[in-house]
Amino acid sequence: MALGLLVSLAALLLTGCPRGTRRTLVPELPSSGDPAAKNRFVDARALFLRDGTGAAELEAIATEFPDDPIAPFAQLYAGMAHVKAREYAAAESVLREVLESEADERIVARATLYLGLTLSYRGERKQALPLLRRSEAAIDGDPERGEYLAALAESTAAQETLAALPIYDQWFRVATPIERAYVLERVEALVALSQDPAVLEAWDVIEDDQGPARAILGPRVAALREAAGKPEDARKVREQTGKLRAKLGLSAVASAASPVAGAPGTVGAILPLVGKQSRVGESAALGLALAAGAGDGRGSAIVEVRNADSAEQSVAAFDELVGLGAVAVVGPIGGAAVDATAARADQAQVALLSLASRPEERASGRYVFHLMHSAEARARALARRGFAAGLRKFAVLSPESGYGRAVSAAFVAEVSRLGGSLVSTHTYPADTKSFASVVKKVEGSWQAVFVPDQADMLELIAPALAAAGLVPRPAGEKKAQGGRPIVLLSTAEGLGDDFAVDAGRNAVGALLAPGFYADPLDPVAQRFVERFVHVHGRPPGAIDAYAYDAAQLVASSGGRSAAAVVERLPGLQLAGVTGAVAFDANHRRADDGVIYTVAPTDDGAGFAVRVLAD
Q1: Strand blocks (E) in 419-568
Q2: 380 and 301: one domain?
């Protein structure tokens, strides 16, 4: 049962959904000034209107022609382009210059709007709110109105909670289907966390009988009026909201209309939703959103996310979440941020479930738990699985990169520890596109070759091996048409559906350890995969899955306090989508995670990646 969703993903959802071409409410271009500057601007603006890019050229125009009447136009569009690219620091800088200039009031109004959006996306909602409130007249069209209402609703909710409900109602009218699912969860969460007097006051103030606010307030208000000895009033409220709830696809009784007695506490999350790691942070946020019931109301945790892309911001976000009563915090992702926040977790005695990709290099302690399997850990797991299958002689074919060296070393060390032998090793430039000559250099009578690389590189390597007479087959097969059978092992980072289509016939029996793959037939992950595709429109990846497991782990602990979560996590085992989650003495993953293989489909018409049975 979903307890509600407190994930600030409005910017993520909006930027992920195409909204069509945007016009602009700005003055006509000046007739005076340098013709060259004007022509360059016209070309740069056309590029922005087509695909949202061109910030660098627009800033260059403003810099090279600072006194030309075209300069404020160029600055405005540069700021808009930076917002589109999620380059919020750069957007704020150039948009503030426009506000401080003597530009036409219509240009200033547009710059004010986009500065408000920028600050909202950065999580600086207190500063964003006054800018947004005075910018409505500058909105151009429904697509931009949706973006504006999302930012205004989130910024208002951060300051005045239920005062944001009418704005969510407005956003709902112009929202995409995914955004509507988010709005429903967000309103449920806000209502669930509000005190009874505020709920009653909001009910009396909100008049919109088509949006989600009254539909979600209704069951709570009815219960309060029933408790106050007003059964007839309660009946009328239920009658008013029943049809609306059905129309919106909500249950007869709200899943989060009131706090659930005895339910686990809020799970905090610290993720980089802007900056260089934003794509990783956004993926983790989508996994957490699903755990919280976004889109289908089938979540198991209340999740509240804070954006942070530095160690300092992560520590501040951790303090804020703990102050709000979070019983555990998921994240951060970056190494320095994880270490700094781990120290604060020890001080606060609140569990931190980090999403560091190389947890062996990160801080450990009583209050720090690392959810991710590093590539090195997955390489060691492949060595163990291969050894268990009877393989003793190995080769390594790896890219000339830090990743290739580190992951290969981990694999070789585990093979040596197990008593196996390394027969051959060869490296290749990381940008290699043809492997016909490369694979011929991996000589010797080895049984299996380990390739630590991306799945799309493995798509090139597997057919090259087969063409050279080294035919990937399951361990134990003695013969292979076209050559001798070998077993292919790989970390296969970013493994997706295209691998089986493009390389499946040349990778049969391969052992793959990408951390997670959306195998639709895996009985453990099937429900997660189906829900994720339904809600988010794409198969989940590894970071989505690890973040989802993190929230599930806290929920499974049943902890209603930070102390209870810390006490139960070390001994807890979870049948997670990334493996049978368990922690070792240093609170890193003790389980090997999930190993996948390539096999023919049941109908024999193709190949598929499947979970390898134990």
Answers
A1: 421-428, 448-451, 470-472, 484-490, 511-512
A2: no
Q: Which of 462, 477, 512 is the last residue of a domain?
A: 512
> pLDDT value at position 356?
96
**How many CB atoms neighbour CB 88 within 10 A?**
24
Which residue shows structure tokens 């049943």? 558
Q: How many helices (H) and strands (E) does the chain have?
A: 24, 15
Residue 327 pLDDT more than 90? yes
Model confidence at 211: pLDDT above 60: yes
- What is the three-state SS of 72-140? HHHHHHHHHHHHHCCCHHHHHHHHHHHHCCCCCHHHHHHHHHHHHHHHHHCCCHHHHHHHHHCCHHHCC
- Cα–Cα distance for residue pair 20/149, rounded to 1 Å: 17
Confidence band of 24 (pLDDT split at 50, 70, 90): low
Question: Phi and psi at residue 518, in whole multiples of 5°?
Answer: -80, 70
Radius of gyration for the alpha carbons in the chain, expressed in angstroms and rounded: 27
Q: Are 123 and 85 within one domain?
A: yes
d(CA 365, CA 159): 35
For residues 540 and 417, membership in a common domain is answered with no
Measured CA to CA, the distance from residue 373 to residue 376 in angstroms comes to: 8
Q: Kindly indicate the confidence band of residue 449, based on its pLDDT and cuts at 50, 70 and 90.
A: very high
Range of the domain at 353: 263-373+523-583
- Report the chain's mean pLDDT, rounded to a whole number: 88
- How sure is the predictor about 285, in pLDDT bands with cuts at 50, 70 and 90? confident
Evaluate if residue 168 carries a pLDDT over 90.
Answer: yes
What pLDDT does residue 291 have? 87
User: Counting Cβ atoms within 10 Å, is residue 144 exposed (0-12), middle (13-18) or buried (19+)?
Assistant: buried
Residues 6+ away with beta carbon under 8 Å from 536: 178, 286, 290, 295
Please spell the DSSP secondary structure of 21-58, one letter per residue.
Answer: ------PPPPSSS-HHHHHHHHHHHHHHHHHS--HHHH
